[in-house]
C-alpha cells in the first residue's frame, strides 16, 4: 500500500475526517532502512520506537557508533536502552555528542546543572501527564531529550511518545494545506508561570518572551512535515479569532492521542529513552501515585523551527 492507495476516509457529522486506515512507515517513504552494524535494533511499533541492544552508554562513543545511533534516532524518533549504569556527568556527556546540553530555566536540577531531576511521589504528584514537546516556548527548542530512570514504581509510570510526522500525514489534505500557512504562539507562562512570583514572572518573560513557530514545521534533517503545536505551551494561532483558534488547536492537540502513532515504554531502573523532540510529543502516565518515581533528563539545544 502506498500513500496514493489509502482507503476511503469516513467523515463524521462534525465534518472532521477519521484517521485513514493505511500502513505507517518510520520514514514516510515505505522503504526498508539500511541494516545497523554496531548494535541490535528491535522496532517496538511499525512507525515509532525501537529498543537498542549491545550499547553501553556509559562508555565513550565512537564517531561510527554515534552516526549509527543518530540514523536510528531519525528513523524511529525514540530509542530505548535497557540496563544502563550512568552517572549524572556521564548522562550529560552522552548528550554532548548531539549538541549543547541546556540548563532548564524552571525545573529542579541534579548535582550537574544540565541534568533535570524529576522526583514525584506522595508529596509531589505528577504533572507531566499532558501531551507535549519539551520547551517549545524557546526560540530554539530542544532537538532532543535523554531521560534516565533512577527509581520507578513496580507498576505504572509508563511514558508514551507520539509521532508528529505520522500525525501530519493522517490529517485531511485540505487541512494540511491550510495549516502550512499558519503560525502559533508558544509561551511558558501557561505552565511554569503559575509557579513564579509576579517579579520573577516578569523577569523570566523578558528573558523568554512568547515566540511564534509554524504550526507545521519541516524537520531540518529528514525533511518530514511535522505537526508542531502542543497543549502545554501553545496559546493561540496567529491571525485567527479566539474561538476558531481554540477549536482548531483542540483538534490538532488530539492528533497525538491516536494509538497508531504511539509507542509506550514500561520503565525499569537503568532504562534510558532518547527522543527526537522535533518529531514527537510525549506523555508521562500519572497512574503510580503515591509511589515514588525519580527520573533525570538532559535536553539538547536545537534550532529555530522552519
UniProtKB/TrEMBL annotation:
The keyword Iron applies. PANTHER family: ALPHA-KETOGLUTARATE-DEPENDENT SULFONATE DIOXYGENASE. Signal peptide: none annotated. It comes from the Bacteria. It holds the Pfam family TauD. It comes from Streptodolium elevatio. Transmembrane segments: none annotated. The keyword Transcription does not apply. Belongs to the TfdA dioxygenase family. Residues 42-299 form the TauD/TfdA-like domain. One of its GO terms (molecular function) is dioxygenase activity. This is TauD/TfdA family dioxygenase. Keywords: Dioxygenase, Iron, Metal-binding, Oxidoreductase. InterPro entries: AtsK-like (IPR051323), TauD-like_sf (IPR042098), TauD/TfdA-like (IPR003819).
Amino acid at each position: 500500500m502506498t500513500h496514493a492507495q489509502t482507503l476511503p476516509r469516513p467523515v463524521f457529522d462534525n465534518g472532521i475526517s477519521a484517521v485513514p486506515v493505511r500502513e505507517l512507515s518510520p520514514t514516510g517513504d515505505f522503504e526498508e532502512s539500511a541494516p545497523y552494524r554496531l548494535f541490535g535494533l528491535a522496532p517496538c511499533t511499525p512507525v515509532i520506537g525501537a529498543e537498542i541492544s549491545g550499547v553501553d552508554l556509559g562508555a565513550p562513543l565512537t564517531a561510527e557508533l554515534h552516526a549509527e545511533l543518530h540514523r536510528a534516532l531519525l528513523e524511529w524518533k525514540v530509542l530505548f536502552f535497557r540496563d544502563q549504569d550512568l552517572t549524572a556527568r556521564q548522562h550529560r556527556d552522552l548528550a554532548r555528542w548531539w549538541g549543547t546540553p541546556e540548563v532548564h530555566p524552571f525545573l529542579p536540577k541534579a548535582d550537574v546543572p544540565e541534568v533535570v531531576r524529576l522526583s514525584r511521589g506522595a508529596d509531589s504528584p505528577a504533572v507531566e501527564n499532558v501531551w507535549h514537546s519539551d520547551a517549545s516556548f524557546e526560540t530554539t527548542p530542544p532537538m532532543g531529550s535523554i531521560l534516565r530512570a533512577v527509581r520507578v514504581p513496580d507498576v505504572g509510570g509508563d511514558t508514551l511518545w507520539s509521532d508528529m510526522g505520522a500525525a501530519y500525514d493522517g490529517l485531511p489534505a485540505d487541512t494540511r494545506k491550510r495549516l502550512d500557512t499558519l503560525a502559533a504562539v508558544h509561551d511558558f507562562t501557561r505552565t511554569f508561570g503559575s509557579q513564579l512570583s509576579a517579579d520573577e514572572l516578569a523577569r523570566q518573560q523578558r528573558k523568554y518572551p512568547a515566540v511564534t513557530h509554524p504550526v507545521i514545521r519541516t524537520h531540518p534533517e529528514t525533511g518530514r512535515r511535522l505537526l508542531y503545536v502542543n497543549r502545554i505551551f501553545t496559546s493561540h494561532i496567529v491571525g485567527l479569532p479566539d474561538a476558531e483558534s481554540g477549536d482548531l488547536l483542540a483538534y490538532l492537540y488530539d492528533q497525538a492521542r491516536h494509538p497508531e502513532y504511539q509507542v509506550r515504554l514500561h520503565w525499569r531502573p537503568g532504562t534510558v529513552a532518547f527522543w527526537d523532540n522535533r518529531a514527537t510529543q510525549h506523555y508521562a502516565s500519572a497512574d503510580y501515585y503515591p509511589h515514588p518515581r525519580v527520573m533525570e533528563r538532559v535536553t539538547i539545544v536545537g534550532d529555530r523551527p522552519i
